[in-house]
Design a protein that fits this description.
The protein is globular and about 50 Å long. It has helices spanning 7-26, 43-59, 74-86, 105-111, 123-131, 140-151, 171-180, 195-200, 246-249, 263-283; strands at 3-4, 33-39, 62-68, 92-95, 160-164, 184-188, 204-207, 225-228, 232-234, 239-241, 255-256. With 285 residues, it is an alpha/beta fold. The strands form three sheets. Strands 1-11-8-7-5-6 form a six-stranded parallel β-sheet. Strands 3-2-4 form a three-stranded parallel β-sheet, with helices on both faces. Strands 9-10 form a two-stranded antiparallel ribbon. The protein has ten helices and eleven strands.
Length: 285
């Protein structure tokens, strides 16, 4: 039976650390502030917004919610972004994606200052991940995966890590961030030939393909750590499931994240960490 890597304890430690940093900023009259830009009322956006608001309250981060109707134009969204860029009291901006099909997401990303991009959507932030420089911030979920691994005292230096998924939100950035921590990374995806063999060779598997139960019992061996980043709704079962067939994988491996209860809580904590980081940077400019 695997050890469950639950996100709540890690999120609690991060929350306490961040609250102390927020207290230090408050002594200098600085209130770390996040702007959330939401277009429409997608259920997953609303769910994440509620989770972010709860985490922000615990940390002491102020939040401004900019909710726009789904019928909003690209110009409407960019105008909100420009106001956020100009507001020195707002330190970070989170834009919920995907945006409606009528809006060019790349154009919206290009309008946001990387210094306020706390979820890695701009080209500047992604360059920062690629080059290992302090430009913007990496995607929160990608950093949350590493945070959970490291806070669980699982060694990354020298480890063989298999990343399944190649998106700009998780797969590609988490691969680069793992390499920066001296892991040897193999990137796989849904079209990888003989995926089970690739996975069994790894010490750590990070699954972020967005395919329910993609990683099954044939893909794992004893002693591995499995980080499931997937969040999928299983209509038949009537519940959330990950990209891992948990009931097949959990009895085999050494460590595994549950879904739900794994990466999610850490992700909102990392979002707050980025806002606090941005506020500290701004305070020292």
């Amino acid at each position: 039976m695997a050890s469950l890597l639950r996100g709540a304890p890690v999120a609690q430690v991060l929350t306490e650390e961040l609250a102390r940093r927020v207290e230090m900023l408050s002594r200098h009259g600085v209130v770390p502030t996040l702007a959330i830009v939401r277009v429409g009322e997608r259920p997953d956006d609303l769910s994440y917004e509620r989770a972010a608001l709860k985490r922000a309250e615990k940390v002491g981060v102020a939040v401004q919610c900019c909710a726009l109707p789904a019928s909003s134009s690209q110009e409407d969204v960019i105008a909100v972004i420009e106001d956020i860029n100009a507001n020195k009291k707002v330190h970070g901006c989170l834009v919920f994606r995907p945006l409606p099909a009528s809006i060019d997401e790349d154009a919206v990303a290009a309008a946001l200052y990387p210094a306020k991009d706390v979820d890695g959507m701009t080209a500047g932030s992604l360059f920062g991940v690629f080059a290992g420089r302090r430009v913007g911030y990496p995607p929160c979920t990608a950093e949350a995966a590493l945070e959970l691994i490291e806070r669980s005292h699982i060694e990354l230096a020298g480890a063989n890590v298999c990343v399944i998924g190649r998106s700009l939100v998780i797969g590609k950035p988490v691969s680069l961030m793992l390499q920066a921590r001296h892991a040897t990374v193999t990137m796989c995806h849904t079209r990888t030939r003989d995926l089970p063999t690739r996975c069994r060779e790894a010490d750590i598997i990070v699954v972020a393909a967005g395919v329910p139960r993609l990683l099954d019992g044939s893909c794992v061996r004893a002693g591995q750590t499995v980080i499931d980043v997937g969040i999928n709704w299983d209509e038949a079962a009537g519940k959330l499931v990950g990209d891992v067939a948990f009931e097949e994988v959990e009895p085999v491996v050494a460590n595994i994240t549950p879904v739900p209860g794994g990466i999610g809580a850490v992700t909102t904590s990392i979002l707050m960490k980025h806002v606090v980081d941005a506020a500290e940077r701004a305070a020292h400019e």
